[in-house]
Amino acid sequence: MRLTAVALSEVVEHADEGKRKGLDGTVYLQQQETTEGGTVFGDEDASGGKAIEKIRLLLETSDNSIYYEDEFTDMDFYKDALVQLERLETYYPIERVSEEELGQKLEEN
Q1: Which distant-in-sequence residues (6+ apart) come within 8 Å of 66 by Cβ?
Q2: How far apart, in whole angstroms, are the C-alpha atoms of residue 47 and residue 33?
Q3: DSSP H stretches of helix in 34-109
Q4: Which is it for strands 40-41 and 25-35: parallel, antiparallel or unpaired?
Q5: Torsion angle of alpha carbons 108, 13, 68, 46, nearest 10°?
Q6: CB within 8 A of 61, min separation 6: which ones?
Q7: Mean pLDDT, consecutive 10-residue segments, the chain of 109 residues?
Q8: Alpha helices of 1-109 — where are they, by DSSP H?
Q9: What angle do CA 45, 26, 4 make, to 5 degrees?
Q10: The whole model's pTM is what?
């Protein structure tokens, strides 16, 4: 069964609960930076236009999975999300994947 989270904190709570139950798991993370016009940038190319940081992730445990995605235009909210990702990594390893790889993972479940 796959759950969908509306907040990254829900994924962190889910990871905490899974770890307490002794479940194995992996976080598949896809991050992308674009501008309002949809242009994709690398980290060093973020000049001009308003940056949009997109995070998509799938936490798969031996019991179930939970999916989360969001776009951040406010960098303070994005920085908070990065802190939560660091916390998530204390529970399960994070594997960075491409958009296509994440799409395949989502289709598998």
Answers
A1: 2, 3, 4, 5, 10, 11, 14, 58, 59
A2: 11
A3: 75-89, 99-108
A4: antiparallel
A5: -130
A6: 18, 23, 24, 25, 92
A7: 94 96 97 74 56 94 95 94 96 96 89
A8: 8-20, 75-89, 99-108
A9: 80
A10: 0.85
